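User: I'm putting together a teaching handout on how sequence relates to shape, and I'd like one worked example. Could you take HTH-type transcriptional regulator SarZ from Peribacillus psychrosaccharolyticus, show the sequence you're using, and then write out its predicted structure as tokens right after it?

Assistant: Happy to. First the sequence, then the structure tokens directly below it.
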Amino acid sequence: MSSKVSLLNQYWTDIYFHLHYLHKEKISHQVVRILQLVDKQEEIGVNEIASYLQVSHNTASEHIKRLIEKNYLIKGRDPLDERKVNLCLTDLGKEVLHRNTSLDEEKLERVLSELDDNEKNLVENALKILSERAKQCT
């Protein structure tokens, strides 16, 4: 791995470590991954989650059942194909996902307030470019 890649990874982990929200919920990494997948993908069901996590359909189904019981996810029928079940985040699920994957906006605002306009623009543009390219990797 190149030293640039290692350095970027170090920067990213430093940023997240210092600026993440304090976690209120005790949820597993796998639950976070499921919530992220539902958030980022259109028309996602149990099969897609099982494939993404590389687990059996039954295991994925049990995870989803628990997330529905916690009111993080809801099931809905596909309007074009009533046989197909799609998963969606509830408002609570969106909040839990945000707190477990995003930067604390107050902390981030404090850091950004210490930057001049040029630095803010550099940070925004760099993250925008990385975000756009990352979306092309999948």
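A couple of points you could highlight for students: The chain has two domains: 1-20+104-138, 21-102. Residues 73 and 90 are 5 Å apart (CA to CA).
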